[in-house]
Design goal:
The protein is α/β, with parallel strands linked by helices. 49% of the residues lie in helices and 11% in strands. It is built from 19 helices and nine strands. The strands form three sheets. It has a five-stranded parallel β-sheet with strand order 4-5-8-1-9. A two-stranded antiparallel ribbon has the order 2-3. Strands 6-7 form a two-stranded antiparallel ribbon. Strand 6 (214-219) and strand 7 form a beta hairpin. Helix 17 packs across helix 18 (354-365).
């Protein structure tokens, strides 16, 4: 899709100005060799390009995917988002584009990620000696920082994920361990593309950390516990393999991402992607005002979320719905209600309505029923009945034991 600008003299012929108007030899050389073009495209391709994600607000269509991602940012209690769909539908682009919308949070100034709350919960020994000294002197341990997007690559080893022995830092026996990706994801977004292809041991470590909000690493006599409270976002192409039920259950919202169906939408999407690939800065600038407004609205909704209440009659409606659909996992109502609260907060309201529930029902409740489990329960029920019937027969007065 990247449009390459050809640098052959022939194709540049129309762009070249007559030699007489060129002011210097260098200018001429730059034009003829196409260096002006290649130097600008070089800077686009280098690390800088990574810092300029496609603007979230420039994504065409995909309303449900965008809504799910925004709700997950507003309320981390939703439990993250799973995006399911074929390749080329913008899943990864959408996740990476969230970076510009993320609010500020307090961030540890220390390599080990020490936080004031570690001292509050575990005493002064819960932080490294440097931070203990700072804390005693009344110096801050944190500074405001933007939430980050931490990507867990498919080839990550268990040691990269949970951390391991750190040769370069021998400050104190307890702090000889290097923080892994899961610790770096604390208070951030942890994104796993092709989450269905992750190795089992990495998935197990992830599930542990996700359920506890922290995890421990032990290497010989050295051990450490790290915070690991992250918004978990995964994407997968169902053609490439199934997702283990345990990990699928961990995701709050589930979005089925289809390709754009409308011709006009596809045209507009192509136009925006093309303009982004041609000049990232210009595309980002076009959306900069809306992006900033959206970022502030997310921050405001985040600060409101604690006040949003779920009225009893709305909760009853949600539970009735889940019961009739036949979902066993308690995570269904956690996600349904927390997503509805985020939806209300996004609308600057402090009470959930039926419309908030309706807006998030599909993304909260789909892919939660298991035909294996319902068949299993059915079989189990008939076995239980059989056992009870036999018991009745055995206990009946006319029964004679057969020899
Ligand atoms: Zn520290």
């Amino acid at each position: 899709m990247v449009e390459k600008r050809s640098s052959t003299p022939e194709s540049q012929g129309t762009e070249l100005v007559p030699v007489t108007s060129v002011r210097s030899l260098k200018e001429l050389l730059d034009r003829v060799t196409g260096r002006e073009i290649s130097s600008s495209s070089l800077s686009e391709e280098s690390g800088i390009a990574e810092a300029i994600p496609f603007p979230f607000l420039a994504l065409v269509g995909q309303r449900e995917m965008k809504l799910a991602l925004l709700l997950a940012l507003i309320n981390p209690a939703i439990g993250g988002v799973l995006l399911v769909g074929p390749r080329g539908t913008g899943k990864t682009t959408a996740v990476r584009s969230l970076v510009d919308l993320l609010p500020m949070i307090p961030r540890s100034l220390c390599y080990y990620g020490c936080m004031p709350e570690d001292i509050e919960s575990g005493g002064i020994d819960a932080v490294c000696p440097d931070c203990a000294k700072k804390y005693a002197q009344g110096d801050p341990l944190t500074k405001p920082d933007k939430v980050r997007l931490v990507e867990l690559p498919l080839n990550a080893r268990l040691e990269d994920v949970i951390g391991g022995i750190d040769e370069r830092a021998v400050v104190n026996e307890r702090f000889q361990l290097r923080r892994g990706l899961l610790a770096q994801a604390d208070r951030n977004i942890l994104y796993v593309d092709e989450v269905n292809l992750l190795s089992d041991e990495v998935v197990d470590a992830l599930l542990d950390a996700a359920s506890q909000g922290s995890y421990s690493v032990r290497r010989g006599a050295v051990s450490a516990t790290y915070w690991s409270r992250f918004v978990f976002i995964g994407s997968m192409n169902p053609e490439e393999g199934r997702l283990r039920p345990q990990i699928q259950d961990r995701f709050g919202l589930r979005v089925i991402v289809h390709g754009l169906a409308e011709l006009e939408e596809r045209k507009e999407a192509y136009r925006r992607v093309h303009s982004y690939l041609t000049n990232r800065r210009i595309t980002v600038t076009e959306f900069i005002t809306e992006t900033e407004i959206a970022r502030q609205e997310i921050q405001t909704a985040r600060s409101l979320i604690g006040q949003v209440i779920l009225p009893d009659e709305i909760a009853r409606y949600g539970l009735d719905l889940i019961g009739r659909i036949g979902i066993d996992s308690l995570r269904a109502e956690i996600t349904l209600f927390e997503a509805a609260r985020a939806h209300a907060a996004a609308d600057a309201r402090t009470a959930v309505t039926i419309d908030d529930i309706r807006a998030v029902t599909l993304m909260s409740l789909r892919l939660r029923r298991s035909s294996f489990i319902s068949n299993y329960f059915e079989k189990q029920n008939s076995e239980d009945e059989e056992i009870l019937q036999i018991q009745e027969r055995v206990l009946s007065p006319g029964n004679k034991t057969e020899g």
